[in-house]
Write a structure and sequence with these properties.
Strand content: under 5%
Protein name: Sodium-dependent transporter
Strand order of the largest sheet: 1-2
Helix content: over 70%
Distance between the termini: 42 Å
Membrane topology: Multi-pass membrane protein
Organism: Microbacterium salsuginis
Number of helices: 21
Radius of gyration: 23 Å
Pfam family, one: SNF
Main location: membrane
Shape: globular
Oligomer: single chain
Order of helices and strands: EEHHHHHHHHHHHHHHHHHHHHH
Structural class: mainly alpha
Length: 535
């Protein structure tokens, strides 16, 4: 069987040709939709502000060029060359040393599974607040409304007291996600991104333009972009830059491996990768402008400096600070609808990419159709998500699980992946050859060095320092048993899931596979033989 290019074989699963994006634009929009998520809006502005303001853009750009884009290319090369979700790709890339390399793929799938459980809850909150914006339901005390009336936050523990205000929108998000996954790559994921991504950009642009005309907006922008050059001498600022790039681009936990595997054999990889990376960073800067222009207005209304404001990142920024701002500004309900609508759109396009990692892996391992895998994965995930994150302890469980899954799970995955592929399996030259064989923008030996040396060193430092901090300092003053259960328990679940899934038998062996194009190239082998004969 040939692919749409009519030249090379396409992997067949369960009697069907492998799903594909309809074209390059569809892939780019889907990849951007995955990268542009909640962190772009609620994390980047605060991180930049706290790490040198305008000066932070220098380490941020360095981190993008030396780690973000190189690891993104690594994900693309693995998925595209070995034509599979993360477990399939890692099993094939390490076939010469045994099936154990498949476990890294399942490690990444398990991370995506865990993230999908709580990411859905945040989208449900955003949908609720979108509705609340019409009548400014949070009143004069957004903090009290969020933790009290809306989430009904209790003490750390395990609660089965469900919160209807969260449960209903959470169920709606899960139903929508399952429908999209069941529709497949082209009719589901691609179509949603083609609609939602432009809608997100338009809505957020309107929000930013409105924010720029608020009283105090200039002071907010000055606070964000005024450079603190002394910060460049602080190693923690550089680590913060690498951390932001790493978490923002959706790399090293299976998403881009899976997405690249749906591209046609003769498909440009590196040029679209640059588009995705810089589009993601552009949206982060746009988000920074919108958020800090709005924070400038808030500080102006209170007669204080922006530096004296609290809640500049994460849940506090989105669900406490912004509702307070919306209540005070002219046309607040419309502004609130735009903000929370954008938050929900950005979250949903990222969510479906996370869930596709799990669905695709299950499809390939057990020879299931996209619909069967989507329903199976979706129902199990939805039940667990409702049990864990729609109760009075949902916010606390979400906070702890997110901290461990991201800062330990994903970072560990990246460190192991770069060392395994470049140093243990020594596949760097082959993957570099693959990228250059199908792409217009060529990568050199520097790419292999960045992926194999700089990335594991920087990310390894991040991983070790975070583990030490969590062990020594704990997290947010929560009880040790709670951190053990939802924090370290999350990591234990990911490791056990990877081992168990690797041990299960494949319905169809993934080993009967020949990567394309041939490596080393036939002409190189022929020329080497000729030189030996002539000598």
């Amino acid at each position: 069987m040939t692919d749409a290019e009519g030249s090379t074989p396409t992997q067949v699963t369960a009697g069907r040709p492998r799903e594909q994006w309809t074209g390059q634009v569809g892939f780019i929009l889907a990849a951007i939709g995955s990268a542009v998520g909640l962190g772009n809006i609620w994390r980047f502005p605060g991180v930049a502000y706290e790490n040198g303001g305008g000066a932070f853009l220098i380490p941020y750009l360095v981190a993008l060029l030396t780690a973000g884009i190189p690891i993104l290319f690594l994900d693309y090369a693995l998925g595209h060359r070995f034509r599979g979700a993360a477990p399939t790709a890692f099993r094939r890339v390490g076939r010469a040393v045994g099936r154990w390399t498949e476990s890294l793929g399942w490690f990444q799938v398990a991370i995506a599974f865990v993230i999908g459980l709580y990411y859905t809850a945040v989208i449900a909150w955003a949908l609720s607040y979108f509705v609340f914006s019409f009548d400014l339901r949070w009143g004069d005390d957004p903090a009290g409304f969020l933790t009290g009336e809306y989430l009904r936050v209790g003490e750390p523990g395990i609660s089965f007291e469900f919160v209807p205000n969260v449960l209903i929108p959470l169920a709606i998000v899960w139903i929508a996600a399952i429908v999209v996954l069941a529709a497949g790559v082209a009719k589901g994921l691609q179509r949603v991104n083609v609609i939602f991504l432009p809608l997100l950009v338009v809505a957020f642009l309107i929000l930013v333009v409105r924010a720029l005309f608020l009283d105090g907006a200039a002071e907010g922008l000055n606070a964000l972009f005024t450079p603190d050059w002394a910060a460049l001498g602080d190693p923690n600022v550089w680590i913060a830059a690498y951390s932001q790039i790493f978490f923002s681009l959706s790399i090293a936990f299976g998403i881009m491996i899976t997405y690249a595997s749906y591209r046609r054999r003769r498909a440009n990889l590196t040029a679209p990768g640059l588009v995705v990376a810089f589009a993601n960073s552009s949206f982060e800067i746009l988000a920074g402008i919108g958020v800090f222009a709005t924070l400038g207005f808030f500080a102006f209304q209170q007669g204080i400096a922006v530096a004296d404001l609290e809640g500049l990142t994460g849940v506090g920024l989105s669900f406490i600070t912004f509702p307070a701002i919306v209540s005070q500004m002219p046309g607040g309900p419309l502004f609130g609808c735009l903000f929370f609508g954008s938050l929900a759109l950005a979250g949903f396009t990222s969510l479906i990419s996370v869930l596709q990692v799990v669905s695709a892996a299950i499809q390939e391992k057990f020879r299931l159709s996209p619909r069967a895998a989507a329903i199976g994965v979706g129902v199990v995930s939805a039940v667990l998500s409702v049990l864990l994150f729609s109760t009075t302890t949902g916010l606390l469980a979400l906070d702890v699980t997110d901290q461990w899954a991201n800062n330990i799970g994903i970072v560990a995955s990246a460190v192991i992946m770069t060392i395994l592929v470049i140093w243990v399996l020594r596949r760097g030259p082959e993957l570099r050859y693959h990228l250059n064989a199908v792409s217009t923008f060529k990568v050199g030996r520097l790419w292999v060095a960045l992926v194999g040396v700089l990335a594991p060193v920087v990310l390894g430092y991040m991983l070790i320092s975070r583990i030490v901090a969590l062990i020594v300092e704990g997290y947010e003053g929560m009880p040790g048993w709670y951190l053990l259960l939802f924090g370290w328990g999350t990591i234990a679940f990911i490791v056990v899931a990877a081992i168990v899934m690797t041990a299960l038998r494949w319905r169809d062996s993934p080993d009967d596979f020949t990567p394309w194009p041939e490596y080393p190239p036939a002409e190189r082998v022929a020329s080497t033989t000729e030189r030996k004969v002539s000598s």
